[in-house]
Amino acid sequence: MTTETEAAGPRGPYGEHDDDGERAERGDEAMRHFTIKHDGVTIPVSRGGRGRPLVLCPGLNSTQAGLHELAGLLRRDHDVVTFDLRGHGLASVADRYSFEDFLGDLVAVMTELGRLGLPAAPVLVGYSLGADLAVHYASEHPGTVAGLVLIDGANPVPEPFITEAVLPEFRAMWEDLAARQEAVRGTARQVVLTPQEILDLNLEIDAVRADILGRYRKIDRPISMIMSASMAGDRGAGHAPRFNRIWRAGVERLTREHPHIATSWLDADHQLVFTHAPEIARIIRGATPGDWSDADHR
Predict the structure, then answer these.
(1) CA-CA-CA-CA torsion for 81, 192, 150, 36, nearest 10 degrees?
(2) Does 149 fall in a domain?
(3) What phi, psi does 126 have (nearest 5°)?
(4) pLDDT at 288
(5) Any idea what the CATH number is for the domain that residue 65 is in?
(6) pLDDT tens across 241-253, in order?
(7) Is 298 a domain residue?
(8) Claim: this prediction has a pTM higher than 0.85
(9) CA angle at residue 169 from 240 to 249, to 5 degrees?
(10) Strand runs (DSSP E) across the chain, as ranges?
(11) Residues 95-154: tens digit of each pLDDT
(12) Considering the domain boundaries, does residue 297 fall inside one?
């Protein structure tokens, strides 16, 4: 079930006025905003721009509001759909925050877009957890996407990130993140997950990525990856070197098995979608015109 509104002038891609978002959107067509209700949660969706349809799936702890720069750049030549996952941004809270629950949010959005009708199958772009969700979605729904762009996620890493040795550091990081969330509580940038829920989900993501190679074998659409060269930062001490080594090893493992996957490396950390939006938009824009198939949208 959807409820739709339309903005007559430039607005942020998440349904509220924002100076940065307005600058990014200036010159685009009017934004359309609607909500999808499923599984007891309300998912806010925004759509605007012109050109080939593109769906941008956020990741854990990221929102439409946070991705406004990238979305605004892509809207120059794409019909871009963005949304918030449960417990993020303007989406409602939920009783559960498992990988399958987030995948259900993406499925609900894609199903509604199919009901509304698109001129062509969309390119599905996912960031971090959103990339993993995109791979799972495409592997389970053949023919519904034109191709995938995976930004620093869906990486078949050869060993888990979270071990007993790093658990205290991760707990402290997520507790600090939860404390900083108080400054944006009730806004389009909020994340309501608790540190324990984030920890549980990260452990689940480790398990998901251990088996994700099999998912890639089921996808017959073009895939591009945009990866950070130093996902954990360029510090030479602590756990960062191990994380960076595992990250690169995962991509190398994937491209050995699937050499057709185009991979771009950016000199950035895992925040690349926020710090390098123009470069990411250029890569996506350069790949999509002739590379994606014209599969029917079903």
Answers:
(1) -30
(2) yes
(3) -130, 140
(4) 55
(5) 3.40.50.1820
(6) 999 999 999 999 9
(7) no
(8) yes
(9) 30
(10) 2-6, 32-38, 41-49, 52-57, 78-83, 123-127, 147-151, 223-228, 262-266
(11) 999 999 999 999 999 999 999 989 999 999 999 999 999 999 999 999 999 999 999 999
(12) no
